[in-house]
Amino acid sequence: MTNPRAITRLVIHCSASPNGRPVSIAEIDAWHKARGFHRAPAAVLRWNPTLKHIGYHFVIGVDGATSTGRSEGEIGAHVVGANINSLGLCMVGTDSFTPAQWLALRNQVGALIEFLPEMEVVGHRDLSPDKNGDGRITSDEWLKRCPGFDVAAWLANGMRPETAHVLDAT
User: Fold this and answer.
1) Is 27 exposed, middle or buried (0-12, 13-18, 19+ CB in 10 A)?
2) CA distance 41 to 144
3) Is residue 66 within 8 Å of 92, Cβ to Cβ?
4) pTM, whole model, 2 decimals?
5) What is the pLDDT of residues 49-65, one digit of tens each?
């Protein structure tokens, strides 16, 4: 990985689809097309030419497979006002994810932190505006619940998820 645009933040998202239901990166690309997202034509030619609208850099499917969307050097379309220096990673689901997804998330975040040790890792909801100006973003200020779990708590817990956010593997 190169860092051509001074990436300082990784933003974790959820697809807001039913937990455990497979969603392909092509399906997410179609959702982003419907929302008016688009990639620069030159970027499409260089990286993932079938994905002309995807806003995320990575998508982790319910099987734990990590797909790439935009290249890491390409500005994403995943958080209004915070795309320039960030990467976007989407977990398929809403608030509970498979053990394979949690493992893939830990591996992907770990690899990115290893390359970019100063990078901040946050959830989409953590970038909501601080409406009361107290320097903290609380649940009553969230514009979205995405990614459906507390990223800071997940990191503080050694990248281990709370049981309530793990889909039963049986």
Assistant:
1) middle
2) 30
3) no
4) 0.91
5) 999 999 999 999 999 99
